[in-house]
Amino acid sequence: MLKADILNIGSAEPMQGGTRRAFMLGMAGAALGGTLLSPSAADARSAEPETAGDDASVLIPARPWKVAFEEHYMTPHFSRVIRGDTKVTGETSVYDLLLDVGAQRVDTMNKAGIQYAILSLNTPGIQGESDPTTAVRDAQFANDELRHIVDQNPGRFGGFAALPMQNPRAAADELERAVRQLGFHAPLVNSFSNISGDDGVTFLDEPQYEPFWERLQDLNVPLYLHPRNPVRSQQLMFRDHPELLAATWAYLVETSTHALRLITSGLFDRFPNVRICLGHLGESLPFMAWRISAVYGRHAHHVKLQKDIASYLKTNFLYTTSGFFDTTATREVMKLVGRDRVFFSTDYPWMDMVQGGRWLDTAALSNAEKWKIGRTNAVELFNLKLAPVA
Fold first, then answer.
1. Are 155 and 28 in contact (CB under 8 A)?
2. Element (H, E) at 248
3. Backbone angles phi, psi at 116, to 5 degrees
């Protein structure tokens, strides 16, 4: 068990008697057995090496040290919509694990060597609600619930905001509330959102989302674009093969296509500082970057982008290892985008958290690469002030 002090995470926002972030996220987690530090002591204790230099100088600690941020949960309030969209025959135990946000999850994190996990509402989350008014209400409820969950283990858990993308301006307002008032690190959006019925969908490249992207860029936080199954009317290619839905293949096709829509819409020319996180090592996009760029450059005459598609994949996207515990693939992504843009995550509980943690521990990567992927890239991205582990 870690004996550590958990410091305030991210920028502070005013509240009576101090700051909400310093209070909520700066408390020592009971699971870690820590004590609250004064700001001056916090600065002194946080001076662990947070950059990976020469490999010989990087020692991987035995205590939990990793940061993971595609880690899912649900609550009884959202059980119906999540179960309805993500039916997994014979894996009902997964739903029990989604509901566990207490001691069992923390114990699993310890076994995986994960110090800090950022939780997100399981797919489809708020995106599965077709009524915009209900979506706004449910997003607020979900984020307040998650704030309560984080408060129970502030040293081990952080939060990604759920957003009602069915109403773009309300989504922007809820994003700002979640970041500034609730102390969340970023939003996670489960790809397209339902609207006007089960087969009506809205994608994030559509014009009505301009105010949302402007707010996201102003807040200087990334957006995690997470998969969901295509709506039924778009599942004909999977007819008679339900085993190819969800994470087997459909998630990859759906989310990589959505990401390409964002690029080819010119989003990153209008908002060059917007950053998108993709799980599963980028839903195949890094491996297809050359071909997509080459063919698009020859045929897409109606859209004038400032850069080629591969360049946007290298500058506006970040990639996690969630559910993709493969060293060769991880190395290839690092070669394309650089090791500063690759992050560890596990996709728990849909994938085995302990397997993911042990994979990184034993992967044929240098200690410096493991340290960056497993910890310091996330520390820098989310401005985390975690207890030192070295």
1. yes
2. none
3. -145, 130
State the burial class of residue 64 (Cβ atoms within 10 Å of its Cβ: 0-12, 13-18, 19+): buried
CA-wise closest residue to 36 among 6, 1, 66 = 6
Kindly state which CATH superfamily the domain 70-381 is placed in: Metal-dependent hydrolases (3.20.20.140)
Q: Which two tokens stand for residue 186?
A: 């970023």
Measured distance CA(290)–CA(146) in Å, rounded? 40
- Would the pLDDT of 2 be above 90? no
Is 205 catalytic? The answer is no
Residue 20 has pLDDT above 50, yes or no: no
H-type alpha helices, the chain: 20-24, 39-45, 79-85, 92-99, 103-112, 132-152, 168-180, 210-219, 250-264, 267-270, 280-283, 285-299, 309-315, 327-337, 353-362, 367-371, 377-382
Domain boundaries, the chain: 70-381
Q: By C-alpha distance, which of 54, 181, 71 is closest to 123? A: 71
- Number of Cβ within 10 Å of residue 151's Cβ equals 14
This prediction has a pTM of 0.85
Q: Catalytic one among 43, 347, 352, 361?
A: 347
Amino acid identity for residue 347 in this structure: D
Phi-psi region of 64 (alpha: psi -120 to 50; beta: other; left: phi over 0): beta
Q: What is the pLDDT of residue 45?
A: 34
More confident residue, 243 or 333: 333
Condensed to tens digits (0 to 9), the pLDDT of residues 108-162 reads 999 999 999 999 999 999 999 999 999 999 999 999 999 999 999 999 999 999 9
Q: How far apart are CA 2 and CA 62, in angstroms?
A: 10
CB 72 within 8 A of CB 121: yes
User: Residue 344 in contact with residue 321, Cβ under 8 Å?
Assistant: yes
The Cα 302–Cα 184 span in angstroms is 39
Contact between 378 and 65 under an 8 Å Cβ cutoff? The reply is no
DSSP state of 28: P
Cα dihedral: 310, 311, 317, 318 (round 10) = 90
Asked if 370 contacts 98 with a C-beta cutoff of 8 angstroms, the reply is no
Closest CA to 129 of 192, 87, 205: 192
Give the confidence band of 325 by pLDDT, cuts at 50, 70, 90: very high
